[in-house]
Design a protein that fits this description.
It contains 2 helices and 5 strands. With 87 residues, the chain is an alpha+beta fold. It has a 3-stranded antiparallel beta sheet. A two-stranded antiparallel sheet has the order 1-2. A hairpin with a 5-residue loop joins strand 1 and strand 2. Helix 1 crosses helix 2.
């Protein structure tokens, strides 16, 4: 299961761990991903999304429907990837 936000498209980044002596080794910057359930009013159902904290702020700012349409338009997720919980 890849750690990719379905709303913003954020994913793991790679960088360097730098010691006091400036010795560099590779490390990963993980995304703050969690699962969240929302009630999707336009379809009258509950949906489950994997999103980051930034994705949650985006939904709070512009709304769930607009955020989903923008994510599908940008290619971050597809409509069939959105998990519907109990119709």
């Amino acid at each position: 299961m890849p750690r990719i936000c379905q709303i913003t498209g954020k994913k793991v980044q790679v960088g360097n761990r730098v010691s006091h002596s400036k010795h560099r080794t590779k490390r990963r910057f993980e995304v703050n991903i969690f699962k969240k359930k929302f009630y999707y009013v336009e379809e009258q159902c509950w949906i489950s999304l994997k999103l980051s904290a930034a994705g949650l702020r985006t939904i709070n700012k512009i709304g769930l429907d607009a955020a989903l349409k923008k994510a599908v338009e940008n290619g971050y997720c597809k409509w069939n990837e959105i998990k519907v919980i109990g119709d």
